[in-house]
Design goal:
By secondary structure, this protein is mainly beta. The protein folds into 2 domains: 4-15 and 37-173, Immunoglobulin-like; 179-265, Immunoglobulin-like. It contains 2 helices and 18 strands. The strands form 5 sheets. It has a 5-stranded mixed sheet with strand order 4-11-10-6-8, with no helix packed on it. The model is unreliable at 13-24 and 58-74 (pLDDT under 50).
């Protein structure tokens, strides 16, 4: 399954920016002759804050309308364990009155079980009022810890040294498909690893059969949590030849899933 995650970075002028300082007189003398912040200064700060809130509200409404979810409402994006081709789209909007040159977006805080490509993107220029789309591909390894949450930081910087950031939280969700993988190594002698994944907590039975359909070994017979699992079979006591390994997973509702694969033992 391909999941698209959308986030927004709004590049806005700080309420204490130099442009605000230049537009309004900062200091004034009170009735006792003391140097204090002027009324014009505080008025300008209130105007800047109001404008910033309006920008955030407008862009949130646009995002909600386009993807059906508000950025502020999302606590963590669930991404299935072992999934590939997920997309993170970071919409960078320039609400300044001037263009931004050589804008870069770089990801940080990536654990070993997560792959994000590319790790950084750059844009030559983003004009005032314009937007650019930073698009990343996200994949989670099958060994990712189930239900773990990871915060990815996207650092946005410009040629002039300006910096902004946006965080996105990813939660490792259970795999979406029941699957039995080919054993490795194959052919093998004398042991091999059998991997599988289950979507919910289930009673798991993993058995080995010879080519005559006779059961020769039970590798697993017990409860397993949702996620990716690996089991090893030692065939030291068995003769060479073709074997079939069968996985049965029965969930709490009694729903049963069965699959089989072949493997070759060489001696």
């Amino acid at each position: 399954m391909r999941i698209i995650l959308v986030a927004l970075v709004m590049i806005a002028q700080s309420v204490y920016s130099q442009q605000s300082v230049q537009r309004k007189q900062i200091f004034a003398h009170d009735e006792k002759g003391r140097l204090v912040r002027s009324k014009e200064y505080w008025k300008s700060q209130l105007e800047e804050r109001k404008k910033l809130r309006e920008h955030r509200k407008a862009f949130t409404q646009i995002l909600t309308k386009s993807v059906g979810v508000s950025v502020e409402e999302v606590k963590a994006y669930p991404v299935p364990l072992g999934s590939e081709g997920n997309v993170i789209e970071l919409n960078v909007s320039n609400s300044l009155s001037s263009a931004i040159s050589k804008l870069s977006v770089q990801a940080a805080g990536i654990p070993t079980w997560m792959r994000l490509t590319p790790s950084a993107l750059s844009f030559s220029q983003v004009g005032p009022g314009e937007q650019c789309l930073a698009r990343f591909s996200l994949a989670l390894d099958r060994t990712a810890p189930l239900d773990a949450s990871q915060t990815i930081s996207f650092l946005v910087s410009s040629e002039g040294g300006q910096r902004w950031s946006r965080q996105m939280k990813i939660k490792v969700a259970p795999p979406q498909n029941f699957e039995l993988y080919q054993n490795f190594p194959n052919p093998f002698n004398p042991s091999t690893t059998i991997a599988y994944q289950i979507t919910t907590e289930s009673r798991v039975s993993l058995k080995i059969f010879n080519v005559l359909g006779q059961e020769v070994a039970t590798v697993v017979d017990g409860d397993r949590l949702a996620g990716y699992h690996q089991e090893m079979w030692d065939a030291t006591r068995y003769s060479c030849g073709m074997y079939v390994y069968q996985l049965i997973a029965t969930d709490e509702k009694g729903h049963k899933q069965i699959t089989r694969k072949r493997m070759m033992l060489l001696k």
